[in-house]
Structure formats: structure tokens, C-alpha cells
Amino acid sequence: MQVSAKLAYVLVSTAFLIGMANATYLNIEGPVAGTLYNNGTIYLGKVAPGESFYVLASATTANSSGYLVNIGWNRLETTELPAGWSSQPSPLYQDPMKMKITVSPNAPVGNYRILIKAINVQNYSKLGNISIIAYVNVSPDVFNVKVAPTDINTGIGQPTNLYVTINNTGISDDPFVISATGLPAWNQTVSVISLHSTKNTFIYPVFVNESGTYPFKLTISASTSPEVNKTFDINLTARESLLNDYSAITQGAVLSPIVFAPAYSVMALISYIYKTYGGQLT
């Protein structure tokens, strides 16, 4: 197939212009990373109804000639959001630019489209603006949790630590809340931060002032999304006994001068031997 000289010139010129246009990009740094050109698309991740997340992007880009412009983009904002959602643009001249997006608390589960624009204020660097399309998946399934131990033997009035490991698989950094229900005179609520794409372990102490067996529930929930929660059944048995006093030492419950540390070590060893090998204290 033969191509006329004029048509060839048009094709080459068009390719050159496309290449020039593609030289200007937006470098997304969070919650996922990617370099996008105008009208490019990116999947950001999962978020629950009512939660907020941040989109971070570098202010650095290149002009149409391919030369770097260190502060080319001056603001990041959204120009199209699903109904009921809200956003806060990044402050002017922030680097990296950080924009907040809040999902509607009534958003049904599904995939959503967001139009994001990077702006060169007053076109000072001759970059114009660039728009990208971002997708997020709205789902309550944004974290995993492990709790240990689930069966507790302790003394009366002796705090025992529960270890709560939160694996945040979503893109929100909103706090999680740890709470217990079913324990007499104990209603402590703890707010913790487990950043997106991280796994963190938190200590949650529990205790009772009377002997007995207390089944209770430990709940971990997202502070901004009631739909995001997981509940665990825990069994706590408290009784007066020397063995439980010794066992409490291994939970870090006894606070006394350091000079007694050697004695504590012996007591903890006695408790371990008893529980492991079925020995008896006399």
C-alpha cells in the first residue's frame, strides 16, 4: 500500500503531537502508585461506605518538550464524584499533593468512577490541566483481624492483655475501635490506627473484680463505617488462687519494684510448668 507524501507528513505530525501530549503526566503516589497521562485510568483499591481516603500525587511533571517541571501541578481536585460523596482539594503548592475523598455512608457495594484533575494554576508553566479516571471498589470487606488468647484464666482484679492484630486491606486510614461487651463494670473503648495496606498488633487489657466465668464479646469496628466490624467470643475465668497470681506475671499484670524480678521469673516458671505438664502447687 502506497502513502502520499502529504498523508505521510500528516501521520508523522500527528504521532509527534501525540508524543508531545503524552510527555505531560501525573505521578500518583498513594494509595497505589502509577504514572498516568491525560485520560489514563487507575484502580485505587477497596473502601467501605462512609470511610475517607487520600489520593497523593507528585507536583513534578514534564512539559510538552519532555523537560521536567518540578512544581508543575499546583492543586489536585475532583471534577466528578458519585452522588453523596465529597472531596477536599489539596492545598495550593503542596508537594506531594494530598486530596481527601469521603465515600457516601449510603453507597451500595460496587465499583465507582472518580474524575481527578491536576491543575497548573493560571497555566503558569504552560502545562494546562490533566485529567485521570480513578476507580474504587466500595465494600465492607476491608480488613482482617486475629485475636489471642480467646480463653483466659486469671486472678481477680488482675488485668490480662488481649492481642488484636488488624490487617487493613482497604485504602482508608480512618481509626478502628476496639471494645468489649459482657464483662461486669468494664466498658473501655480504645481507638487505634492501622494504616492502609499494613498489619499492626494492639494490646487491649481486660479484667474483672469478682470470681467466676465470663463469656464476653470483643468487637473491632471502623470508626466511620458501622458496616465494618468483626466480633470474637472470648471466655474469661477469674478465681482466687496462687497459680493465677503467678500466671498473671506472664501477662505483665504485676507492677512492683525491679528488685523482685528474679522472684517473678521463678513464679512465672512455676505457672508454665503447671500448665504445660499438669503439675500441682503444694
CATH superfamily of the largest domain: Immunoglobulins
Order of helices and strands: HEEEEEEEEEEEEEEEEEEEHH
Oligomerization state? single chain
Q: Which structural class should the secondary elements be placed in?
A: alpha+beta
Q: Give the tally of structural domains.
A: 3
Number of strands: 19
| Mean of all residue-level pLDDT scores | 83
Helix and strand layout, with pairings?
Layout: H1 5-22, E1 25-30, E2 34-37, E3 41-47, E4 52-57, E5 61-62, E6 68-69, E7 75-80, E8 86-88, E9 97-102, E10 110-119, E11 129-138, E12 143-148, E13 151-154, E14 160-168, E15 176-181, E16 189-192, E17 198-206, E18 212-222, E19 225-238, H2 242-249, H3 261-277
Parallel strand pairs: 3-11, 13-19
Antiparallel strand pairs: 1-2, 1-4, 4-9, 5-6, 7-10, 8-9, 10-11, 12-14, 14-17, 15-16, 15-18, 18-19
Structure in words:
This protein has about 280 residues and is α+β, with helices and mostly antiparallel strands. It has three domains: about 5-140, Immunoglobulins (Immunoglobulin-like); about 145-240, Sandwich (Immunoglobulin-like); about 240-280, no CATH class. It contains three helices and 19 strands. Strands 2-1-4-9-8 form a five-stranded antiparallel β-sheet, with no helix packed on it. A five-stranded mixed β-sheet has the order 13-19-18-15-16. Strand 1 and strand 2 form a beta hairpin. It is elongated. The model is unreliable at about 1-20 and about 255-260 (pLDDT under 50).
